[in-house]
Every structure is written in C-alpha cells, then in structure tokens.
Amino acid sequence: MTTPDRPDLSPATIAAQAAGATDADTGGVVPAVHMATTFARDADYAPLNADNVYLRSHNENTRVAERVLTALEGAAETLLFPSGMAAVAALFRTVPDGASVVVQRQIYWGTTAWIRAFCTRRGIALHEVEASDLDALSTVCAAENPALVWIETPSNPWLRITDVAGAADIAHRVGAVLAVDSTAASPVLSQPLGLGADIVMHSATKGINGHSDVLAGSLSVRDADHEIWQMIRTDRDTAGAVLGPMEAWLLTRGMRTLPLRMREMSRNALALAEYLADHPQVETVLYPGLPDHPGHALAQAQMTGGFGGLLSFVVKGEAPAALRAVGRMQLFHRATSLGGVESLVEHRHTIEPHTGIPEGLLRLSVGIEDIEDLKADLAQALGQ
Ligand code: PLP
C-alpha cells in the first residue's frame, strides 16, 4: 500500500503507517535506514537500482518521508531540505534578478531577515505588506506585478491569519506564484494547496518532526510540471541541499504521531489561551482559537481539527515583568523553536528588538504535557 494508490485514507492512517512504507528486504514493518552515499553498477555499467546513483541526488529514506508529506498535504510532489531556511532559499532562488516579490510583514524573523538580504543582493524589489489585510495585498500586487507572493499563516509570533484562497486569487490575477509557510499549522491542520496555493513550505523541524531532534524543511507543490518546481528540483540535486537519510528516517518516525500530537497541542494551547485571557497580569492573548481573535472565523474555515500549539500573550509591565515570569517558569523550557512535544517559552523582544514586537510578549509553544501541570506552572510564574 502506498498512499498515492489510496486517496481514501485519512491523515491518521497515512501518518501512522508512513504512507505504506515497510522494509521489503526483511519484512520489517518499519523501513530500514540506508546510509550509503553511493550505489553500485553492474558489469555492464548499468545502475543496480536506477533510482539510486549518489546520495546527493536522492535517497530512499528521504523519498519515504516525502511521500508521507505529499499525501498529507494533498500535493503532487514534496522535496525535503536540510532546514526550513534551506527550503525558503530554494524557492526564492528561482526569482529572476530584477523581478519583484511581495512578502507578508511580521512573519518569522529569520525568514524576513534572510529575504531582505537576498533581495538586496540580487536586485529584487521586495514589498512587505500586512497580507492578512487582503485589500492591502491586492493593492501592492496590482501595483508591483510580483513574481512571487509569500505568506505565513498562522504567523509567528503574531498569530495573524491570512486568507489563503483570497491570497491565491490575488496572486494568480497578476501571474504570481503563491507560496505559504504553513509551519505553525502543520499539514494536519491546514492544506493550503487545496485552497489554491501553488507551493507550501514547512520548517519540518517543528510540528512535523515534533521531538526537537531533527532539523529539516519541506516544499510541496500542487503542479509538479510548474517551471519553478523543475528549477527547485534540479537545484536541490545539483547544489546539494537534500536531507540526509538519518534525519529523513527520524522525520518519518516523528510523523507517525503527527495528527495525534497536533490535536493534543491544539487542545492544550486553547485551554491555556482561555486561562491567560482571564488572567489579571495579562494584557492580551494572541491565539486564533479564541472567539475574539480577528482571524478566528477565517481560521475556523481554513483550518481543521484545531488551531495549533503556538500562542503569544503580552504580560502587563513590559519587558521586566515578562522576563520575571519567564525566569520563574519550571516546566516551559526557555528556548527558541516550536512544535515539539515539550512546551517552550520565548521572549521574542530579546531576539528581535527592532521589529515592533511588544516588550511584554511571550511566545509559547505548547506541548502535550498534562494541561493542569502547564496551567499551574504559568499561574505560579505570573504570580497567581
Ligand atoms: N518558518 C517558520 C514559521 C519558523 O518558525 C521557522 C523556524 O523557527 C522557519 C521557517 C525556519 O525553519 P528552520 O529553523 O528549520 O530553518
């Protein structure tokens, strides 16, 4: 069974059974790790296995993980990279020198910083816009004729929700490709390709792997014949940005529980968001699962099964109060990243002080621990 043959299967089944991957040589129900970097040819100089010539071009473990993601995303094809940023870079490298791109503002700071530097270097006109405002997106696209539109939803750490179908219409009207960073949602809670996006990107380091022990990134495409996709595929091969077999194997193992983890993380995050919304020390909670979040109705419409484990809140009393609370936390690790089974907290203003992040903002990546333990930790940290 491979999932392309079984489009009827649900995400839980696809994930748990790794899209049908087993080890045909041993009968193992789990695929083996294939560490070989090169593959033999026979006496007539034909490859013993035409799919495998040299590890940089491709490898079986990476193919397995890509098949799982392709099935979960409803994509035509997926390519895995050694990090999320390597996937972002692989896409932006297809933009011609001198072209223009439209990028959502106030997204993951690492993406913004890299794109700014890249566009400057390559003479690409970069237009940053609040893409959750479709009128603003439409105006800038009509004026600037971009080759590529980049959105991130839910956005990190502002938790803004952008209308993927609306953004796709706007991008396509001017002949642009719409790419979506869907890291915070994971392929379980959202499938942007089904909403009209051309390419979906993930930092697979996050929820997709889920155990904070693999660095990886992915791009999945709706139409594998798209010119841009051919360029990305060739460039990954020749420029050497393929994910290694051990990481791919770990990723496949992590994905077996992806739907289960996303469900539990979403449930815990919603409960914490509701708790924090009523807390006297808290100014604001940013979580799309809360009914008063400006993107709540849209998130309900374009996400399924939950709103994810990422949530931000602003502590009253600015940076000193936020840092005091963070310092007291005992269960939330003070660490960057998100999407792991263990909960993390981050004071983003310390990391990106000049980007408009409120000084009191704390970003939580909510894990799968017991909700009462997490609540109690926040309660004692906030002083109530
Ligand atoms: N996109 C988002 C939304 C992220 O949060 C991150 C990392 O934090 C990235 C992209 C970059 O991914 P990686 O750290 O795997 O390179």
Textual characterization of the structure:
By secondary structure, this protein is α/β, with parallel strands linked by helices. It is 38% helix and 15% strand. The chain is built from 14 helices and 12 strands. It has helices at residues 11-16, 60-73, 84-92, 109-122, 134-144, 164-173, 186-189, 227-239, 245-255, 258-277, 296-302, 318-328, 348-351, 371-382, and strands at residues 77-81, 100-104, 125-129, 148-152, 177-181, 199-203, 217-221, 282-286, 310-315, 333-334, 344-347, 361-365. It has a 7-stranded mixed beta sheet, with helices on both faces. The chain has a 5-stranded mixed beta sheet with strand order 8-9-12-11-10. Helix 7 links the parallel strand 5 (177-181) and strand 6 (199-203). The chain is globular. The model has no long low-confidence stretch (mean pLDDT 96). Bound molecules: pyridoxal-5'-phosphate. Pyridoxal-5'-phosphate (PLP) binds at residues 83-85, 108, 110-111, 152, 156, 181, 183, 203, 205, 215, 217, 337.
Largest sheet: 7 strands, mixed
Structural class: alpha/beta
Strand order of the largest sheet: 1-7-6-5-4-2-3
As a whole number of angstroms, the C-alpha radius of gyration is: 21 Å
Walk me through the topology.
Layout: H1 11-16, H2 60-73, E1 77-81, H3 84-92, E2 100-104, H4 109-122, E3 125-129, H5 134-144, E4 148-152, H6 164-173, E5 177-181, H7 186-189, E6 199-203, E7 217-221, H8 227-239, H9 245-255, H10 258-277, E8 282-286, H11 296-302, E9 310-315, H12 318-328, E10 333-334, E11 344-347, H13 348-351, E12 361-365, H14 371-382
Parallel strand pairs: 2-3, 2-4, 4-5, 5-6, 10-11
Antiparallel strand pairs: 1-7, 6-7, 8-9, 9-12, 11-12
This protein binds pyridoxal-5'-phosphate (PLP).
